[in-house]
Design brief:
mainly alpha
Length: 95
């Protein structure tokens, strides 16, 4: 693998890591109005289907989905950064 390809993969990996970190942070940071809306106590429903409609539950599920997406981007970006290093080390070991 030449230096240009390594640099492209590393740059792409860093960009994906940055996007993943932004997605993860955005998923867990609340504005004051949203925190007040979600934090207001409400009566619980009798079934899980009713409880799934509650704002706090919806907020937690949305944050969880965002965190998963962010983690996927961070893991992908990190993997892309590892590829050029691994290829370079393997080529040195068999050279």
């Amino acid at each position: 693998m030449d230096n240009v390809t390594s640099d492209i993969l590393s740059g792409l990996g860093l960009a994906i890591t940055l996007v993943g970190a932004w997605i993860t942070a955005r998923a867990v940071i609340l504005k004051q109005a949203a925190a007040i809306h979600v934090g207001v106590p409400r009566w619980a429903g009798a079934t899980d289907e009713e409880n799934l409609k509650m704002p706090m539950v919806q907020n937690l599920l949305a944050s969880s989905r965002g965190a998963r997406r962010g983690l996927l981007f961070i893991a992908s970006g990190t993997a892309l950064q590892i590829v050029p290093i691994a290829v370079r080390l393997v080529s040195l070991a068999f050279a």
